[in-house]
Amino acid sequence: MKFKKYQEFSCHIHIYMYMAYTFNLCYPSKTFSLQGVISVHLRWYQHPTEDELRSLAGKHQKGGKNKKERKNNGHIENKPLTIPKDIDLQLETKCIAEVDTLALHYFPEFQWLVDFTVAATAVYLITELYFCLAEPSGEMNISVVWSLLVLAFVVKILFSLTAHYFRLEEGGERSLCITFAAFFFVKAMAILIVTENYLEFGLETGFTNFSESAMRFLENQGLESQGPISKLTFKLFLALLCSLIGAFLTFPGLRLAQMHLDALTLNTGRVTQTLLHINFLAPLIMVLLWVKPITKDYIMNPTLGKESVPLMSEKTYDTLRLWAILLLCALRLAMVRHHLQAYLNLAQKGVEQMKKEAGRISTMDLQKMVARVFYYLCVIALQYVAPLVMLLHTTLLLKTLGGYSWGIYPDDGSPCVANEDSHGETPGQGEARVAHTTAQLTVALGGLRTVFTPLLFRGLLSFLAWWIAACLFSTSLFGLFYHQYLMAA
C-alpha cells in the first residue's frame, strides 16, 4: 500500500509539471525566460535616425528627403545619403525590455529552450527528491526522458545555427566548419585508442559488459549471435558523433572567446575578472577531472614521504566530480550577463573603430551596423546557453543512468540496478489484467536493463561529457588565439 501511494504521488507530480509547462506554452508572457531575468541589467545601443546623422554632419535638408536625386543620361538616380566616418556620434543606450526581444532573430528557439530546460530541470529535482525519500525499486525514472528531450532540442538548435553559418557563401564559415569537423574526427579517433590508464572513462569495460549481456540476452531468446556490434564499428560511430558535436560547438566556442576578451575589458573589478578567467577555464578543469595521472591518482592516493595515503574512496571521487561539473555550470550561468553585455557593446566598439577610418559611409550601412548587434542577441545567447545545457543534462543523465549518488559518501545500493520488489497487494479482477500487462512490460524492460547496464552508461556518458568540455575548450582557445593575435596583426 505504501509503495502504491508513492507511485500515485510520483504520477501526480509529473501531471502537475506537464500542466504547468502547457500553461507556459499557452501564455508565453507568463513564462520563466532567461531574458526576463537578465534584461533589467542589459543595455543595448539604439541606431541613430537619418535626421540625427544629417544634423551631426551639417547636412540637414528641408522637406526631410532621405536621398539625393541626380540626372544621369536623362534618368533620375537615387543615391543614399553618406556622412563622414569621423563624425562625432554618440549612441544612446536603453535597458532591454521583454517587448524589445520579440523581434529578435531566433527568439522563439531561445525562449523554447530556456523554458523547457527549466521545466525539465525542475522535474529532475523533484524526481531525485522522490527517489531519495521513497527509495522505490524497479520504477522507471521519468527524469531520464525529460533530459533526453532537452538534449534532442539542444542538438536541433545547434544544428540549425550551424546550418545557418554553413549556407553563407562568403566569410569562410563553411570551410571553417568542415575543417573543425575533420579535426575533431581525427582527435576523437586518437582519444578512443588511448588506454584507460590515462583517460578514465570506463568505455572499454562498459562496451565489454554490453556485448556479453547482449549475447546472453539473445541466447535466452533462442537466437545465436556473435555480438550486437564490433568494437571497431562502435568506436567509428562514436567518432562520427564526436565530429558532429565538435562542428556544432565550433562557433559557440569562437564567440565565447571574443565575449571573454570584451568582458575582461568591460569589467575591471578583480573579483569579476577572476570569475571570468575561471569561467573560461572551466571546460579545461572538467577535462582534467577524467585524466587519471593528474587528478584521480593524485587526489585519491597522494604520496606523502614513502607512503601513499588514500584521501577518499573511488565512489566519493565520482560524486565530487559530478558536483564540480555542476558548480562550474552554475558559474557559467552566473556569468552570462557579463558576456552578453560585452557582446552588446560591440555596437559602440564598431562606431569607435569607424571614427578612426577615413572616407564616408552611407547612413543605411551605419544604421545596419549598429542594429545588427542587438538583432542577433538571441543567437549569441543560444551559442552561450545551449552548450551549457547540453553539458548539464549529460551530467544529470550520467548520475542517473550510471548509478551514481549525490551523497559524498554514497552507499553500495543504487536505484539503477536494484531488483524489483515482487511483494504487494492482491489486485481485483480489473486490476489483475493491468498488473499482468505491467508485469510483461516489466519483464521486457528488465531484459533490456540486463543489456544496457550502468557500466555502459557510465562509460558512454562520461566520454560524451568529457568530449563536450574538450570541444568547448579547444574552440574557445583557438578563438582566443585568433582574436588576440591574428586579428590584432
UniProtKB/TrEMBL annotation:
GO cellular component: plasma membrane
UniProt entry keywords in alphabetical sequence: Glycoprotein, Membrane, Transmembrane, Transmembrane helix
InterPro entries in alphabetical order: Transmembrane_161A/B
GO BP annotations listed: regulation of cardiac muscle cell action potential; regulation of cardiac muscle contraction by calcium ion signaling; regulation of heart rate
Region (Disordered): 56-79
Transport in keyword set: no
Signal peptide per UniProt: none
Principal localisation: membrane
Membrane-related topology note: Multi-pass membrane protein
Pfam families (UniProt xref): Tmemb_161AB
Sequence ranges of Basic residues compositional bias: 57-70
Residues spanning the membrane: 112-131, 143-163, 175-194, 232-254, 274-291, 373-396, 464-482
Record's subcellular location: Membrane
UniProt similarity note: Belongs to the TMEM161 family.
Name by which UniProt lists this protein: Transmembrane protein 161B
